[in-house]
Amino acid sequence: TGAMCSLQRQLEIQESQLRRAKSEKERLQKELRERENQLRAMSAKFCSLREERKHEEMMATIEKENCSLRQVVTEQESKLAEQNKLISDLQGTVNQLKTEALTNRYHIHKQQRAQEEMQSQAETLQHMELQTRVALECVTSRFERFRSKIIQATFGTAGSKPPQAELTDEEVLEAMQKIINERIEFHQMLKQKGVR
């Protein structure tokens, strides 16, 4: 946004210089036309005075004025050429600044769209994280209830000593395996005796 503002200011400055140059060009063209009119008027005056007695004196004066006017015209034409070149250069700079401004607007718009997309993705991830946490808490709660029931079933049987401290998963598994093995041995013993 700062680059855009800087480019916009440069564009306004260049356009202002371009307008001044065009105005100066018009002024120089007007002055050139006035000088040309003066030159034609002086030529007409010269023609009218040609038949008079002081022809040579007036001729010299008019020639001096003509020389002066030609010099002024040459200077004005030179200035006009410089102004035309300046206008061309300024126009090129203005066009370049406009192109840069359009390019910067495109990049800013592209960055805004990318930022909005990232924001949407972040919100989606946050929602998924919340859902995952809720599901994890639910699974953890079910696991704890299931583990508690296993411990109750394992150590709640006759002859089992209730645990004195918190049990690890390995200790619970060993106790369950012991009960299973005892049931298998009892079942084998019943089969050997012929009891169904």
UniProtKB/TrEMBL annotation:
Keywords: Coiled coil. Residues 11-45, 80-131 form a coiled coil. The keyword DNA repair does not apply. This is CCD27 protein. It comes from Chauna torquata. The lineage of its organism: Eukaryota, Metazoa, Chordata, Craniata, Vertebrata.
